[in-house]
Amino acid sequence: MKGKSNISCIIVDDEPLARDIIENYISRIDNLELIASCSNALEAFNLITKRPIDLIFLDIQMPEITGIEFLKELQPTPKVIFTTAYSEYAVDAFNLEAVDYLLKPIEFSRFLKAINKVFKLTNNTKEEKLVSPKTKLDTSDYFLYLKVEKTMQKIFLKDIHYIESLRNYIKIKTSDREIVALKSISSIEGLLPTKKFLRVHRSFIIAIDFIDSFSPSEINIKGIHIPVGRHYKNTVKKVLGYY
Question: Given 3-state DSSP classes, what are the helix, strand and coil percentages for the chain, each rounded to the nearest 5?
Answer without folding.
Answer: 30, 35, 35
